[in-house]
């Protein structure tokens, strides 16, 4: 016989007269707790009065004991020392009343069960199975709450404390909506609560079904923008107060039931659009294994970046004079294109806010218009919005951004600064103004992720304009360092372009031997952000050194407590040889681990053909990247005489410094049969080189993370890298004795070292085919996806959330 008392959510009170374990200390019952001990044993047994009384009339809204009218009379009498029997009529009335409540309760449970069944059947037609079900017991009559408790405390729950089978089983499809971590957390909170064991299955918990169904609307609390400790999970929730501790959880579980829209996007706040982007056409979807969800950590996240693939990703020559080096960013666009999707897959509601450089077909004008003042001038801003792959994209439109996609960081220093000021001012208010799927993000439970100096003003504005004034109190900001070499430097007078209170100037002032006393946007952002992330562990360490910190190492050391290195992932949909859209024409082919040898050979021949190189079996060395000091192109230049003496082909794709571009052209002219120097920015060619080359060269002088080596390994292309920053983190050196490792590394930025590493690599390619294949396969078999990184980002965002 199932007992309602089995639900761990329902405080247990053993009601056999001899074993009543109510404890006045834990329940605050009041001074005369054992009043019912005076009741005749007969009355208790025949009417189960003890249970009814306790559970139906004696537990107050705060879980305290409250007395029903008849009991009060009894109590009074007993106080007076009168031990007369309880009035039969009063007892009967109480019993009748309780039966009615019980009937209503059952009815309600039935409704819950029906809803679950409906959802399960919908899910079973739309969701792929294949998940490991072992951790989700398939008990057929368990209330969800009970199940989770069972997982945790199975021994305890062997005692038959299960709920009536009117409730459908907790199916695996429901897993995303009832995150184990959340449930376990709630449970552990409850473990400390007093327990009352209801042995009688006829005893209803103290519930007002009308209220309960009304309070099912607490569904909104799951996505409540308030921090979770202020949300309905709190022990002090109104539900608990009104209905007794034991009834809150069923409502919440009901609230977390998946809905149709949730099927298509984990983000439960998005309405109809969910169905539109269900990813049915995505060939990867079937294979994609759902990562664990964020559970109780779910929050609203807005990633703010000056570029976002595929809409904007820098590649054109930058003529900026705001940075120490006149170079481009490119990897930032890739990260802004991929990390948000991974965060959304974990269940967060995620938006990317980026400038609207061109007319993006997917983005629709929201009609929202706002005006922002930049350096004394008003600018009107429009917001365009799209929803793709579970992510909201909000493009901030103003005439300053138009047609800048080829020169995102181009123009004179003041122009760039004005663009970034306007962008950050507009971005920080996006959660207030821009409805996505009809609902604004709001500023509660909100985390901004700003990226590099371009958006380092955002944490500063968040503080100066809002948090200092009691606004956006629950909003947090994390600043990601993709490249510390670009800092947004200028003369101190630039401070007056950023429209901040005078006393904020100190945040921006920095002195170093390179710039003297100057204005430094990155410095202010690093100091103000709640958390700092950089894109690898190695780079996190380098940033703290005077060589790697580029003048900001002092600030970074001071803020070390909030710095964390998280290695980038890659977009395994964009960069996957099996589905790469750039490998479907011109003789290229898609390939996988199984078809690696034939597929790659075909891509190699296609690449040679496309670039006019001799088509033969010779190692192809590739290089893709910005042509600048960072990427070590000069080391390649020094090694060229040695390289052309080898039987190899070298293909370089890049754009950047004019002198280095010229050098590329020159190499090609001089070594027509061996070298191709492609000056320009071509995503298609980058993909094709990655697929067709055997070796990818990355002699970067510094490399915060590096994406190309990750792409290369995913395509079975073996990297040869300078062991710095993220390159050291991600390319374990080949060990021929153990047949382990992923590529070759060299430990200082010297052409001799490069040649040595590359020489060993070529030797292995030619002489040790098995080892070579092992290297390729190990590279391809890694999980390079963003899922792990997204989980780490989530930890950072959660840490920021609870930081005051
Ligand atoms: N000519 C060209 N044509 C086509 N595509 C081209 C190209 N030149 C570069 N790319 C592409 O641009 C991206 C550059 O990625 P990197 O990691 O090298 O980034 P970058 O140094 O710009 O970014 C910074 O941010 C990223 C992201 O955090 C860090 O990985 C990195 O270390 C840091 O310097 C890659 O997708 C690459 O294929």
TrEMBL record:
A single GO cellular-component term on record: chloroplast
Keywords assigned by UniProt, alphabetized: Amyloplast, Chloroplast, Glycosyltransferase, Plastid, Starch biosynthesis, Transferase, Transit peptide
Primary localization: plastid
Enzyme Commission designation: 2.4.1.21
GO molecular function terms noted in the UniProt entry: alpha-1,4-glucan glucosyltransferase (ADP-glucose donor) activity; alpha-1,4-glucan glucosyltransferase (UDP-glucose donor) activity
Pathway assignment: Glycan biosynthesis; starch biosynthesis
Protein name, UniProt field: starch synthase
